[in-house]
Design brief:
2 domains, ten-stranded mixed sheet
C-alpha cells in the first residue's frame, strides 16, 4: 500500500513543528489578488470584468456570469481557479460578439463586486497569469515568538521548498488513490476534466517525492552534478549544467537560477550524472505511474525545487494574530509557504465538512485548486 501522507513530506524549518495557527476563520483572512502579464486594451468583442468575490468558487461564478450575459459557458474565460473560502480578485472575460450587452452592475450580489470592466480583442485563457499577491491573517498562533521570528526570517532569506500544495491531491489523497486504480486496471475516467485532475495530481506527487529526497540530502537549493537549472522568472527556460563553478554557485545563491525536479512525461530525461541517478532511484517503485503518464501523452518538463516569495512582509497584530503579505508566481501555493512557519489548521475545511455532514444539499462544492 503506497503512502500518500502529505504531512510526511519533510520541512526545512524544524521549528515549524513547534508552532501552530489557524487560517481562514473568516474569508477576509485569506485575500488573493490576481496579477496578469498585460492589461486589456479597451477594444474588441470580449468584455473583461475585474471581480472581487467572497465565499464563491471560480467555476460557479463563471457559470453564473454566462447565464447573466445570455451566452454559452465557453464564452467565459478566466486565468486560474481561486479558493472559495477567501476574498479573491480576478479577471473574467465574456465574448459578447453577436449578443446584446447587459448592464454589468446588475450582476453584483452578495459576495460579488465588479471593480471595473473594459474590453479586449481576445478571450482570457487558462494559465495566462503572472501570479498572485496574498494577504493572509493567521489567528490563534501558538509557540514561542522567537520560533516564529526565526521561521519568518528563514523564508525571507532562502524561500521554501516548491512543493505542490496538498489541495492538489484531494481530500486525504483521494485523487492519488484514483490514479493508482486507473494505472493498475487500465480503466480511465470517463470525464475529461477528471482525467486532467488525476494526471496533474500524479506527476505533482512524483515531483514532491523528488523534492523531498533532495531536502533529505540537503541539496534542494544547491547545484549537484548533472542538474537542470531554471532561469528565475521564467516557466520553461531551462539548461543542463556541465560543471559547477563559482559563477554557477553565485547565480544559484542570488536566486538568478534554480535547481529543478522532474514533471514526468514523454521524452528523454534532461538531467545527467548524480541528478539523474537521484531521480531514478527515488521513483524506482513508481514505474507504473511513469508509464501511465507517458501513455496519457504528457511531455516531460521541469519545475523549480525552491520557491521565493517576493515582497515577503509580516506584522504581529497582537499576541494571537499574525499578518503575512507576499507575491507568488503562478502555479505555486501559499499553503507551502505557511507550512514552513507552523502547523496550520484550515478552519474553513473543518466548517465545510461539518456542514456537509449536516446537509449536502446546502453546500456548494468548494474544492477548487488555488492556482497559486
Amino acid at each position: 500500500m503506497r503512502n500518500y501522507d502529505y504531512s510526511s513530506l519533510p520541512r526545512v524549518n524544524d521549528l515549524a513543528l513547534s508552532c501552530s495557527a489557524d487560517i481562514r476563520k473568516k474569508p477576509e483572512d485569506f485575500q488573493v489578488e490576481e496579477q496578469l502579464p498585460f492589461e486589456p486594451d479597451d477594444e474588441g468583442g470580449h468584455v473583461w470584468l475585474l471581480i472581487q468575490k467572497t465565499g464563491i468558487n471560480t467555476d460557479w461564478l463563471a457559470t453564473a456570469l454566462a447565464k447573466f450575459a445570455g451566452v454559452p459557458g465557453v464564452a467565459v474565460g478566466y486565468a486560474g481557479l481561486k479558493d472559495r473560502h477567501a476574498v479573491t480578485t480576478q479577471w473574467f472575460s465574456v465574448n459578447m460578439e453577436g449578443f446584446d450587452e447587459p448592464h454589468w452592475p446588475d450582476f453584483e450580489a452578495s459576495g460579488i463586486k465588479i471593480l471595473t470592466y473594459t474590453r479586449h480583442g481576445k478571450k482570457l485563457k487558462r494559465g495566462v497569469l503572472t501570479g498572485n499577491t496574498f494577504r493572509l491573517r493567521l489567528s490563534n498562533i501558538q509557540g514561542e515568538k522567537e520560533h516564529w521570528q526565526a521561521g519568518l526570517k528563514l523564508i525571507q532569506q532562502q524561500g521554501v521548498p516548491n512543493y505542490f500544495g496538498e489541495q492538489r491531491f484531494g481530500h486525504q489523497g483521494g485523487n492519488l488513490n484514483r490514479v493508482d486504480d486507473w494505472f493498475s486496471t487500465g480503466k480511465a475516467p470517463k470525464k475529461r476534466n477528471q482525467k486532467s485532475i488525476y494526471l496533474s495530481a500524479a506527476r505533482s506527487w512524483l515531483f514532491n517525492l523528488v523534492l523531498a529526497e533532495r531536502i533529505k540530502q540537503q541539496n534542494w537549493q544547491t547545484a549537484i552534478d548533472g542538474d537542470v537549472m531554471l532561469l528565475a522568472g521564467t516557466k520553461g527556460s531551462v539548461f543542463s549544467i556541465e560543471e559547477i563553478d563559482d559563477t554557477l554557485r553565485d547565480r544559484v545563491n542570488t536566486m538568478d537560477i534554480h535547481p529543478t525536479g522532474v514533471l514526468w512525461g514523454r521524452g528523454r530525461p534532461q538531467p545527467q550524472a548524480e541528478c539523474l541517478t537521484l531521480e531514478q532511484q527515488t521513483l524506482e517503485n513508481w514505474q507504473d505511474w511513469q508509464q501511465g503518464l507517458e501513455k496519457a501523452g504528457l511531455n516531460q518538463e521541469r519545475r523549480a525545487l525552491r520557491l521565493y516569495p517576493s515582497n515577503f512582509e509580516w506584522q504581529f497584530l497582537d499576541d494571537n494574530d499574525l499578518e503575512l503579505s507576499f507575491f507568488l508566481p503562478s502555479g505555486c501555493y501559499a499553503t507551502v509557504v505557511m507550512r514552513e512557519l507552523a502547523v496550520i489548521a484550515d478552519t474553513s475545511q473543518r466548517n465545510y465538512h461539518d456542514n456537509k455532514t449536516i446537509s449536502d444539499s446546502n453546500v456548494i462544492d468548494t474544492k477548487a485548486t488555488n492556482d497559486a
